[in-house]
Amino acid sequence: MIITRLSQLLLSALLSISIAGCSSAPALVIAGSYFPAWLICCVIGVAVALGARIVLMLTPYNNKLPMQLLVCGAIGAIFAALIWIIWKGV
Question: What is d(CA 7, CA 44) in angstroms, rounded to the nearest whole number?
């Protein structure tokens, strides 16, 4: 079986991407103890989701928007992922 140059490049790119996460765990020192950075992003995401729920309750879209739990959860998850990407530069 002959492996083409393009498939070799693709395979090496996939392998390098898969081992890029093997560096040290991102942690923050808060009050002398280490907290994982993803936990901080999750807490920020939950706060944003709660804020989005409050904003939706104050607008006329409250009764018109279906599945508000999923919408607010998605807003929080998107914001948490954006914070992670901006902060850690992934």
Answer: 41
